[in-house]
Amino acid sequence: MKRIFWYIFKQLLVATILVTTTLTCMVWLTQSLRFVEMIVNRGLSIPLFLHFTLLLLPTFFAFILPIAVFASVIFTYNRLIIDSELIVMRASGYSQFMIARPAIVLATVVTLVCFSITTYFLPASYREFKDLQFSLRNSLPTILLQDGVFNTVMKGVTVYVRKKNNAGELSGIVIHDARSPKSPVTMMAERGVISLSQHGPRVVMVNGNRQQVDPKDGHLSLLYFDRYSFDIGKKTKDPITRWREPRERFLKTLIKPDPKDSRDIQWYNKLIIEGHHRLSMPFFPLAFTFVGLALLLGGSFNRRGQLWRVLCAVGIIIILEASHLGVKNLGEKAVNLAFLMYLIPILPIIISALVLSNLLSLTKRKTKSHTNQSMLETGSN
Q1: Closest listed residue to residue 187, CA positions, set 225, 143, 235, 130
Q2: In 3D, which of 370, 373, 324 has the Cα closest to residue 93?
Q3: What is the pLDDT of residue 293?
Q4: Burial class (CB in 10 A: 0-12, 13-18, 19+), 379
Q5: Which of 128, 224, 250, 292 is deepest in the core (most CB within 10 A)?
């Protein structure tokens, strides 16, 4: 029994790893393309870009793992049927549950992994992702200023830097302030540095000049300076104190929103439903596995495969996923529907388990009937 268990389990595990790796790479590549502009337009370094996009992986795993387990179950058991290995196992006395046990064990392990992802790793990584994104957009002007490019740091303010080193020192600075179209100001300096003040990021320039044209008479006003500072942004909120989105929160703050926070009250339904969504999603690996097993093991033997049963299983999986997503959207308007988010994955598990149990009973009755008939034929002879 142990050899058969590990024989099937290893095939399922390898297939699950391959499917998970392939789907994760595909999804990560497509999603990371959205942030390529941070490299092109904002001068983000490659290591920081990789760290930034890899923080999204737990979010991908929560959706990919159930599909990967389902695909591995369908592929492995369909191959066992085509190769007539299931017939040999059944003839050797293995019941349906014995044959299905490797898949159920793997699905249980994946379910536990999904629980850990949705309850901790997903909010922790997505929180760090949003904090880093917030910082890159608001709090790190030294990184966002790309040398050799005219950078629009805020509406009406353009900054050009000829060269920037790793220490944040700038050289060849040109700043054009056109926030007042009638009297634009242009500043140039040999070198400078970006610092953070109480009012936000500012450029401290050394050895430069400030040029402004009088709109009345067109007279050029030229001011030379040894040191001059210019604000290039507004002070933004600390990423730690900003309002956390539902996907950034842990279960405690989702199920019990802060009654004193006006934003929490405004988004109350969405926070509650997100919490139930996190708790119900991990049941899908088991649900998908049981659906696939019930359809494949319950079918008659066909050496040409179980195409229609496979398509039927895929259709059921699509319906379950769509229903779960639909209930989540409806639940944001009616929180009382949250129980359906648990019913959608759990009900297929129960029905599929009953189907497998009936198949087991039917197999036993057929075996007993066949044995009795053989004994009668032996006695008559």
Answers
A1: 225
A2: 370
A3: 92
A4: exposed
A5: 292
